């Protein structure tokens, strides 16, 4: 199975893949699995009751990765997929998801990825999900990821959720439930431009003693784009939670940020902070005195901010 | 007109008054105005269409105060009152509101104070509102203040909203709309204990260029009490807004904090921060080594925190 130039370009953008990886992999294109491999420790198998796959990672699997990117290259595709990922006890793995849409036509193309992830006792997961849209057509590029992460005792997860650019509309819904001693870090980075709209809902439940979660969200709204952030952290046990939202608005961009922290246990420690503003004038001027144009200077600053 | 011992005690708690003040005043008791005076610059007159008063402060009035406390000393009173306060152009005055309920019986006693305040061009207002409940009866003590502040060009307001203790249920709704150059500081301090519930909604609209608002909220939830904070700041112009919520939970207290900041203008600068946690152990131990009991040490820390 060979991919064409557009498909390779999408794969590079969303999964940093320059070729089809050798290990466990599932590549889905326009609503169908086109490439699927399991490895010795990571089983990738299609679901029998609905579209999507089960990824079963054997207990104790270390330093392996599984890639499950989704490509959409046609106009008018609406693809809904259900994936279940089970990280076995004591495993330490990387999951690379993500979706790239190249919409060449005038009809909407949409991907709704519904993920359920179970991180078993003592397991460690790194999760990367990049979203990207492009295409010469006027058709909308829509991505609505739903992710539920169940974290068992003493498990760890680091999730990096990135919307690079070109996504016209997104409603992101991320939920995590943490048992005793579980630890979660979510980093979200979002760029919207033109008339794009992005909504990010996050609900993190600190249910177990000693659990802790940190959410860092950085976003940029350019042109006429709009963003809404609603991260929620609920502490039901002696636990720690921190939410941080930093946003830059440019042009006529609009951003609304509503982190909610709820302490239902006297030993819960919850904090959040948020800031919305424009690029600092001094920073811009400093770069411009070095010879950059205003646009180049902005670009450097935004890249740094979203790094 | 003389007040009895209970009434004097309530007045002292909610308005720091040891006697009936000499200037402009309106004291409302159990649903009726019992004492009313105007001064040369401050007119206090009953509304003709509904319960409540109009307080009209002449333009340019300086260093004067008006006291409009409300007392409820009976069980089973539900008192709804509409007050309009107009601070004339260039005036600089203090408004002392507040409500004290002494509920001796088993029926609910409730006061809903609905305030509309207009701070005219260039005027300055200091506003104090304290809420307090007591009484040997089992009847609930309920206080639901609604306050709308319209701030004209270059006006200033400093509002101190305090719930001392003894209020079983409160839903506080504070709204402010700021025109060009207007400046608002709101300080809220709330203590709940036993099974008390408190909800505080705040909506601040930064509509004018150069307007700015700061909200500082400090609260303590003891025993089984519950608190919900929902401050919202919306910036529609080049303006600044900052929201800060600090909370201490003790025993089985629960606190939820959801500040929302919405930037609808590229030159808006909005920030918020919140923290919920228990009293720092070191602070407690330090005071206890000085000879205080645990209870006394807690009391000292809470007083400092709510100062």
From TrEMBL, chains A, B:
Span of domain SUF system FeS cluster assembly SufBD core: 80-305
Q: Which superkingdom heads the taxonomic lineage of this protein's source?
A: Bacteria
The record's listing under Pfam families reads:
SUFBD_core
| Matches recorded under InterPro entries | Fe-S_cluster_assembly_SufBD, SUF_FeS_clus_asmbl_SufBD_core, SUF_FeS_clus_asmbl_SufBD_sf
Listed under GO biological process in this entry are: iron-sulfur cluster assembly
UniProt similarity note: Belongs to the iron-sulfur cluster assembly SufBD family.
User: Which protein are we looking at?
Assistant: SufBD protein
């Amino acid at each position: 199975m060979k991919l064409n130039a557009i498909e390779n370009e999408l794969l590079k953008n969303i999964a940093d893949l320059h070729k089809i990886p050798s290990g466990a992999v599932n590549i889905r294109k326009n609503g169908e699995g086109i490439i699927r491999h399991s490895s010795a420790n990571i089983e990738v198998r299609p679901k029998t009751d609905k579209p999507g796959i089960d990824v079963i990672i054997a207990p104790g699997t270390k330093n392996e990765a599984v890639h499950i990117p989704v490509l959409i290259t046609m106009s008018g595709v609406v693809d809904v997929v259900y994936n279940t990922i089970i990280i076995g006890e004591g495993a330490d793995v990387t999951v690379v998801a993500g979706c790239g849409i190249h919409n060449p036509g005038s009809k909407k193309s949409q991907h709704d990825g519904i993920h359920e992830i179970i991180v078993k006792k003592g397991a460690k997961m790194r999760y990367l999900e990049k979203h990207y849209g492009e295409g010469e057509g006027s058709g909308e590029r829509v991505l609505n990821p739903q992710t539920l992460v169940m974290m068992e005792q003493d498990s760890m997860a680091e999730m990096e959720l990135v919307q690079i650019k070109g996504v016209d509309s997104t409603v992101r819904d991320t939920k995590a439930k943490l048992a005793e001693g579980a630890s979660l870090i979510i980093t979200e980075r979002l760029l919207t431009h033109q008339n794009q709209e992005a909504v990010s809902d996050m609900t993190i439940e600190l249910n177990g003693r000693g659990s802790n979660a940190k959410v860092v969200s950085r976003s940029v709204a350019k042109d006429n784009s709009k963003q809404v952030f609603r991260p929620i952290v609920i502490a039901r046990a002696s636990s720690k939670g921190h939410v941080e939202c930093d946003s830059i608005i440019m042009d006529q961009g609009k951003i609304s940020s509503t982190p909610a922290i709820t302490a239902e246990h006297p030993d819960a420690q919850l904090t959040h902070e948020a800031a919305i503003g424009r690029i600092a004038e001094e920073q811009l001027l400093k770069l411009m005195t070095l010879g950059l144009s205003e646009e180049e200077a902005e670009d450097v600053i935004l890249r740094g901010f979203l790094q």
